[in-house]
Specification:
homodimer, about 500 residues, Rossmann fold, Four Helix Bundle (Hemerythrin (Met), subunit A), 2 domains, eight-stranded mixed beta sheet, two-stranded antiparallel ribbon, 10 strands, about 45% helix, dipeptidyl-peptidase activity (chains A, B)
């Protein structure tokens, strides 16, 4: 029985859902691109005060860098710390994090690595916010910016890259720091931006650390099954029986969902607050959990996407496997997924509609440029089988956002099958760091492209673990990875200073 | 006395001028950027039938590649010839001319070099038209496209580059020619586009011949006096007295203009159809002639900008110098400038308002991105002294086009002072060819940047002479230049084929 409090919650959730759906509707669940977005938890995390010292500043940006349309400019927020900066006369470096799809304070709080190494490089630290996220809202407010396809239309990666280019150049000009080298950092989509920045604006920075950046997750550059195969392998490596339980569960859920009273039974078994309207919504909810678990499969407890134990997949599988022989597969699955959705044990029931992805800029991006085909096959994946269907994706995006995806645009703009060879011939100084547990790693660069464009791989790493702050529990391989990164950044800087010196002495 | 026919002409011209000025007004005369545009004569030249064989096709392009605004797409025209193409199976190359600020048929007619060498390379030839020129009009017609700052706002270099990228990729896909190498060509602004294309879309082409491309004519990358100094030198090298006559003439014109009946006297001396309203308009008219003469200072007669004799500046100076000792400086100047404005001898009087620059997309571009600072100093220039004033340029553009120039955008986007070092580190396979008589050469790349980014210089060449069709009068140095270009293009292709072969045999 629901308590009056639960009833009130349900009503509120219903109202909010309806309001949200009016302006933004969920993507089709099988569009894996949405898993890249880690924006959804930022509001929660942001309630804590910032971990690091910075000033918050604002820069007036053009809304469209590539046309001369009369549009209102907008205030781009950036966080800046010059405490350890060597300054212009000593060519103090500038460490810039390419803000991605979320509030920049959240990325600043979760990119401890940058803050920790900046002092030893005498570096200024800048975290510019990505347009249409956090406080960097065109048209004065999120409500206005997210009003419709017209107001949202300038939310693109190219515009964000141009924002960073313009900001860097203006900032350097104001500080008379034109000769100071810029090193870029970025994780996930931010890592893609950092790498693309090296390709498109090579004169702006001297190198980039692109962590967990799935720059190849477009068109047919990697097989569409890649993402779900890696998630599946993350479970299989922990326990074959756990993998099998999950793989079996989908049929069971479907069958139970079809019998009389089956949805009520599923609702009860999974402690869902409102009775399920279809088995599919439960399936989506579970798929999300597994995917995010794989991304956040860190070796120590974190509060990044959700509060989670260390090695959370191991924990999920332990739960699934540890139930007595007679336990149903559904009971196992529920126990397992509770590690993700309820690690604190404080949740009484789960709101499937309370998916924080709802109204997010990333869903717009995933419906416009960031078309990352995803599929799941019967043999290698533990997920239900499905194919990537560009047609239905397009229909959904037209329905949801009144926008037609451009699935070949990113490959046209940044290089498709020729991306790596273009990088080899025309790029330098990029670290593509990846943890192989991260399902996005399959869409990233996993082999050295050249002497200076290198792949740093950790077998047991997950989604941009290297960018996180150091902890006492950091395993050796993580320490090694970070020290390799520091060494490479040092090399870029040394090379730059060497060239500068040679120029001066000429 | 004017004949009735001349009167009718004058009335028509007056009406056209008024109509044109309603939507587009001349740039301040001292904005040298306008001299880059060679669009103005295209309508005249186009009345002749095309010299080369091609099919005319159309490609549906997005108006804004960098946003998802709901805008009408437009038909981009392109000329194509596959007659000599080796086809996809033999990796037949694709020679693509980056259309610049004019009707593409005119560029096709004036880029004989490309047509002449294509057969020996087994190359397909494509001439895509630049958006907002010729038939490639957004919003259905030139009238609509040029209506106001909003409709014109997508006339930018970045959008044009993206047009070419999208067109090439789609065309190759349709022809199953994905593996066929693309070689870019371009002259003047088209050469800038070709070079920028190598920097921004390195995966799209294997090399570019950028002829007379003033990629450095921005901000303070070269001194603002560069352009007019070169024009002046072109006259000085022919005759010091000619140079002096021109240099002296400005004061005389001004003085005469100020006396009673002086404007009438100038009108008569220079055979101007309508009485001059100011001495300035005469000055501008003369400055234009000298600048274009320097650009078109070809070693044989041409009909490129105007019908001109070979070595036209020599001819101008011969006229100026050959008048008897008693001749006035104004008489000398008139005789000289008639070589430019009236080589055919058919013009009875000159219409200063009949400046074909009037309604041109280039003026919009020169008021938005293509901000090329120009100045003239007292010591090295034969032109009246003037300084570059960004403020007054901005005011003029705001007045004329209701648009604010972005003088630092091109340098932000393509690299400013770091352009050459970025090219060196991140570029390859570009020929910057320049004739030193061309006043634009001073803003181009005149020294090798790397082993594969080379400067090809001819001392006696003018504005992208190398791209013109071979003639019986071609001097040896021009033949040498073209054969160097052919050799380099061959090298690019050989290297590409070598790499492909190595990949296949792996």
């Amino acid at each position: 029985m629901a308590t009056p409090w639960q009833c009130l919650c349900l009503i509120l959730i219903l109202i909010i859902s309806i309001l949200c759906q009016a302006s933004s509707i969920q993507l089709p669940s099988k569009n894996g691109a949405r898993y890249l977005s880690i924006f959804w938890s930022s509001n929660r995390t942001l309630s804590v005060s910032p971990k690091y010292n910075y000033e918050t500043k604002y820069f007036q940006q053009k809304l469209d860098h590539f046309s001369f349309t009369h549009l209102p400019s907008f205030r781009q927020r950036y966080l800046i710390n010059t405490q350890y900066w060597l300054g212009p006369s000593r060519l103090g470096p500038i460490f810039l994090y390419c803000g991605n799809e979320g509030d920049i304070e959240w990325f600043a709080a979760n990119t401890g690595f940058l803050w920790e190494i900046a002092p030893r490089f005498g570096a200024m630290v800048i975290f510019p916010e990505h347009r249409y996220y956090g406080e960097s809202m065109p048209y004065g407010s999120k409500e206005e910016a997210y009003k419709n396809a017209t107001t949202l239309s300038y939310l693109t990666a190219e515009q964000a890259l141009a924002d960073y280019a313009v900001l860097i150049i203006e900032l350097k000009r104001n500080l008379s720091a034109q000769a100071c080298p810029v090193v870029l950092f970025g994780g996930s989509y931010g890592g893609m931006l950092a790498a693309w920045m090296r390709l498109k604006y090579p004169h702006i920075s001297i190198g980039a650390l692109a962590s967990s950046a799935p720059v190849l997750q477009f068109e047919d550059l990697v097989p569409p099954e890649t993402f779900y195969n890696i998630v599946s392998n993350d479970f299989r490596r922990e326990s074959m029986s756990c993998f099998r339980s999950i793989k079996e569960s989908w049929d069971v859920i479907n069958k139970v969902g079809q019998i009389n009273g089956g949805l009520a039974q599923l609702t009860k078994t999974f402690h869902i607050c409102r009775e399920l309207e279809s088995a599919d919504s439960l399936t989506n909810w579970l798929e999300s959990a597994y995917s995010y678990l794989a991304m956040a499969n860190y070796p120590y407890p974190t509060d990044f996407l959700m509060p989670l134990p260390g090695n959370p997949i191991k924990e999920v599988c332990r739960k699934i496997d540890s139930l007595p022989d007679g336990a149903s597969v559904l009971q196992r699955i529920f126990e397992g997924v509770s590690v993700y959705y309820n690690y604190t044990g404080k949740v009484n029931c789960f709101n499937l509609d309370d998916d924080p992805h709802g109204m997010s800029g990333w869903n717009w991006q995933a419906c416009t440029e960031m078309i990352m085909p995803m599929a799941s096959n019967r043999t290698t994946s533990m997920f239900p089988e499905f194919y990537y269907d560009p047609k239905s994706n397009e229909e959904q995006c037209l329905k949801d956002y009144h926008v037609k995806p451009r699935p070949t645009w990113i490959t046209t703009e940044f290089g498709g099958h020729a991306f790596k060879s273009a990088l080899k011939a025309f790029g330098s100084n990029i670290i593509f760091s990846n943890g192989l547990l991260d399902p996005w790693s399959g869409g990233s660069v996993l082999k050295d492209v050249s002497d200076t464009i290198v792949a740093l791989i950790t077998e047991k790493g997950a989604h941009h673990l290297d960018l996180r702050a150091a902890t006492a529990e950091d395993p050796d391989w993580l320490l090694d990875q970070r020290s390799s990164e520091i060494k490479m950044i040092r090399d870029w800087l040394d090379e730059y200073y060497g060239e500068k010196k040679a120029t001066f002495s000429m």
